[in-house]
Amino acid sequence: MTKKTTPVSPDFLYQQIADRFEHLITSGVLKTGDKLPSVRALSDEQGISLSTAFRTYCELEAKGMIEARTKSGYYVSYRKRHLAPAPVESKPDADPARISVDDMIAQVYQHRSDEGITQLALATPALELLPQSKLNKALVEALRTHPASCLNYEEVQGNRLLRKQIARYAVSGGITVTENEVVTTHGCVDALTICLRAVTVPGDTVAIDSPTYFGIFSVLQGLGLKALQIPTHPVSGLDLDYLENSLNNVRIAACLFVPTFNNPTGSCMSDDRKQQLVNLLANHEVPLIEDDIYGELYFGKQRPRTCKSYDQSGLVMLCTSVSKTLAPGYRVGWCLPGRFLPNVLNQKRMTAVSSTTVTQLAVGLFFENGRFDLHMRNLRKALHTQCLQYSQAISAYFPADSKMTNPQGGYVLWLEMNQSVNAYDLFQTALRHKISIAPGPIFSTDGRFSNYFRMSFGRPFDGQIEEGLKKLGSLIQ
Amino acid sequence: MTKKTTPVSPDFLYQQIADRFEHLITSGVLKTGDKLPSVRALSDEQGISLSTAFRTYCELEAKGMIEARTKSGYYVSYRKRHLAPAPVESKPDADPARISVDDMIAQVYQHRSDEGITQLALATPALELLPQSKLNKALVEALRTHPASCLNYEEVQGNRLLRKQIARYAVSGGITVTENEVVTTHGCVDALTICLRAVTVPGDTVAIDSPTYFGIFSVLQGLGLKALQIPTHPVSGLDLDYLENSLNNVRIAACLFVPTFNNPTGSCMSDDRKQQLVNLLANHEVPLIEDDIYGELYFGKQRPRTCKSYDQSGLVMLCTSVSKTLAPGYRVGWCLPGRFLPNVLNQKRMTAVSSTTVTQLAVGLFFENGRFDLHMRNLRKALHTQCLQYSQAISAYFPADSKMTNPQGGYVLWLEMNQSVNAYDLFQTALRHKISIAPGPIFSTDGRFSNYFRMSFGRPFDGQIEEGLKKLGSLIQ
């Protein structure tokens, strides 16, 4: 730790040093229990002020990497148990008489807002992470500045101010579009539905990730489409060889993938593999619906690129929303439908007429005044910290043979239990102890992943969460 | 006019007398040009105050029934040309190379908010008829009173306060339900879509009115459903014999009808015929999706009953929204899905997750504080007046062989031109003169009604509208 830092803006100095410590800790160079230099020693070593040194340790402490021991100093407290990535394949559920996936999902949702429940099931932001009062201001400003107080039908394509801002922000995902290439929707699932309608007819086959967000099965089912499940690796994402083989052997009308921070695995495809995917589909002339709803929630330095950013042929249709970043209740989403813009507009006109005016304009104003950037910096940091805190607690309390992902963004951990554990039984037992989790089988169409579950780290870590995870660990035992 | 009125509340006295005059005028007892008693004579005759007598004539004048001539008194000015109801059947479009219905609809919508257009195409309320500032207050109150400033996902079933109010208002349509039997949606078309999904699978056949709202075709198409068009009479509504015959010969999975103020014909089925329809479908165990979006917009004394009010078997699913009464841009609708509640909830959970929180709560509060009742009384009166004013102008300016409906509620007139008139050509010609109408072929799946068009009277009648109708009349000539 003797190498001096190069001069940088003092505001980011502590962050840079904390990052370096974090790397040393997670990579195992510094081990749990190791004593760290005193604040004064750190200050001297790094050539930084005492307050910057102190802030560095606070940052690491908040993330659960280190702990302060009274009158003794700082020690590494991170319990490294780098669990093996969960394998994709799992035995299909053998008992067809068991509860249906739809009923299971209904049960998970039923207890969504029950009092006293430790909510670990839903991939949504905790209220305290959202910019409540600033958004209220934007909404009132929307009422005030809109010529018709937002009572009128909005343009079918969406509020123009919002579309301009979406086009501006798309640059961070590597995309260059104008507002005329953006269509707003009633949330992300609505965007997926509209895009699917634009490029498929009932009876068509659509390739999807496995496992994937259960809502996607239902959308396909509702449109009379068949799902072809493509295995997805918990770290590298989609199995491209499997997909290529399928493209050569099955008529696939469209693909619907979550390449960045897949739900539930958290996997993020590398830039190279995203480009490969786009090229592969361009060669086969197959549209790619890219669900990018978690794309802005990266823990690293940079936003991962989107598949859309590699799109030369206009075949990629990016879909996302503000439900995971700003306001689930606003129901504001959008898509960038590439060459399918006329079809998408037609589908939206026919089925939704238009989206809610006032929430679209409020989000547009929130983007415009720069508050979105500021909010997202805080949200990403909070989620990263929570991810590490939850992971550590799971490492401490769960059986030694459980496995867990190590996501670099998003809201969820994907856990594999011993094969003898039935996740649906665990879900029901946990619910009796007032803990809600999302059982694995809801993430496949055919009852796979019966010993897996998804856990959200959307709520700030506290005593109740820790108790919940401890109890969950003992229930799994 | 010498019979004395029985004593009633003075506030409603003038209305009662005005109604009686209106009846005498529309039924032809009093003819255009007839002189009416002076205000003083009316006061004496009816035993009412001078101001009540004056108010009576003002009411009739506002509706275009009578006119004041300077220094001469009041005269009947209503130009009675009671046009024959438009027949249902029309020749199918012979030229398959013509523009598609979808493209036609897109063109109608394209000019929705163009500056300087005389907008007669869209069945929507003019902004000045909506309670803008009162709704703004309700929306700000929603933000203030909701524990999470409406940022959170709402319950899947919908905001509870709004559902309670919907259940309360359903009584006026003859329906007794609790809030647990209501599901809110993202507008009425969304409600129709969810209900269809709950009771059909792709490939099924759904019976619909002919003509009917074009959005219904697209919803069916998007869900992979087949449309069976049932003829609808412009006055009495659905042809029940035709329907019964179809039920005996075709497997119909569901019916989707607009029994009250059908769009575009404006027809309203009588109570008896609604009951017959419900019984017929109960005998065949076929669900009825009742689109009641215009049900609250009656011109008569009482709200027409709904089919849902006759439902004993739980097969009727009523769908509606506030888009025609309060705020199109809010996207707040709902359904009462009867026995299909679990399926409907499942469909909503899977595809929409939930509806916009803040607009749902704002509408709930607006209902709760009684402002909805007051607003609706004003809106109904305004629409009735506008309907009469538009009808009179059409009678004055359109060719003698054109026919027009005489709706008792809703937003639209349905006009049949001479067979030589092509409505799509008329639409294009009118657009060049900055007048927008809705050509007949967009209301059928197979290009029928090629010499019909629909005209909205949603905008208050003024000089621009009158000029537009005059021009339109001359273009038809």
Automatic annotation (TrEMBL), chains A, B:
Key words, A-Z: Aminotransferase, DNA-binding, Pyridoxal phosphate, Transcription, Transcription regulation, Transferase
Pfam families, per database record: Aminotran_1_2, GntR
Statement: the UniProt record of this protein carries the keyword Ribonucleoprotein: no
InterPro entries in alphabetical order: Aminotransferase_I/II_large, HTH_trans_reg/aminotransferase, PyrdxlP-dep_Trfase, PyrdxlP-dep_Trfase_major, PyrdxlP-dep_Trfase_small, Tscrpt_reg_HTH_GntR, WH-like_DNA-bd_sf, WH_DNA-bd_sf
Molecular-function annotations in GO: DNA binding; DNA-binding transcription factor activity; pyridoxal phosphate binding; transaminase activity
Keyword Transcription: yes
Domain HTH gntR-type per the UniProt entry, residue ranges: 11-79
PANTHER family: HTH-TYPE TRANSCRIPTIONAL REGULATORY PROTEIN GABR (PTHR46577), TRANSCRIPTIONAL REGULATORY PROTEIN (PTHR46577:SF2)
Family affiliation: In the C-terminal section; belongs to the class-I pyridoxal-phosphate-dependent aminotransferase family.
Protein name as it appears in the record: Aminotransferase class I/II-fold pyridoxal phosphate-dependent enzyme
